[in-house]
Amino acid sequence: MNYLFYLLLILSSFSIQAATFDDWKLELKKTLQKSKINQSTVDIFIKHAQYDQVVQDTYTLQRKPLPLPLDKFLNQWFQSEDISKSWIATEGKKLLKENQVLLRRIEKKYRVDKNVIVALWGIESKYGKLTGKYPVLNSLSTLAYSSQRKDFYTNELIHALKIIQKNKMNPDQFLGSWAGAIGQCQFMPSNYFVYGVDFDKNKKVDLFNSLPDIFASIANYLNKSKWKYKRPVGHRVILPAEFKPKYLTYKSKNNSFWNKLKIRDHYQKKLPRLKDKSHIVSVIMADTNYLVVYKNFDVILRWNRSYLFGLKVILLKTALEE
What are the domain boundaries of the chain? Predict the structure, then answer.
C-alpha cells in the first residue's frame, strides 16, 4: 500500500513538473515573437521542447568540486600518464599535418596560432567525434526553465531557435551538449551569430561538418578576444616550500622574477625567459596545483571560465608543439 502511495506521489510530481513546464513554454511565446522568431518556429518550440531531468541533474553535478586529485583526473581525461603519447595528442598532430594548408590560411588571416585552434577543437569535441547527443531545444529549455542562470539560457534558447529558423533545421536532428553547446567547436548558439564564419563561402556557417568554418570560427573568437599571436598561454609549475601566499596577488611580473623565487615548471626546469608579463593562479581553489599564466590565458578563460579547462588547453597545445 505504501509502495503504491509513493509511486503515485512520484508520478504526480512529474506531471506537475511537466504541466508547469508547458505553462512556461506558452508564457515564453510572446518573448520569442518579440525576438523575431516566426510563428512556424515558435510552433516547433511548443511542439518539440521537452523538460529533461538528466540535463538538470548534470547541471547540478557540474557545480560540485572535482571528485579526483588533479593528476588522476588529467590522466583519466587524457587516457594516458604521458600526454604527448595520448590519443588526443597523436591524433591532433596527424590532423595538424592533414589540414596544414587550411590552418596556415586561417592563422595568417586571424593571427591565431594553429596549435591552439586544434587544441580547442580536440578538447571540445575530440576532433568532431563527440559533438553531443542531447536535443538542443530540450537542453536549453530545461535550463532556461529551472537553472540558476535562467536569463542566460533563455537568451541561448532564442538564438538556438534562430539557427533552426535560418537553416530550416529539423529540431530532432539539432543535437549538442547537455548545456546546449553545438558543433565541433561547441559554441553556444549566441556565439554562432557573433563569431561564426562562412570560410568556405557556401552561404552557410556550418559548425558540424565544414572544417574551414569550424577552424575559422574558433580563430575569429580568439582574435576578437584579443589573442596575442605567437605568444604563450601558460605553464604548470611547482612552488617551493618557502613560497609566500602574498605572491599570488602579484600581477604583471616576468619569469625572471619567478625563477628567482625558485619556481619551476612541471619538469623541474626554469621558466623560459620571455618579455611577456605573467602571474600565478591556482588551478582549483584550496589546491596545491598552480600555473604561471600570460595574457592569452585570459583569452582562454573567455572561452571557458574554468582554470581546469585552461590547464587542459595548455597541456594539449604544448603536446602538439613537441
Answer: 28-65+136-170, 70-131+200-224, 234-321
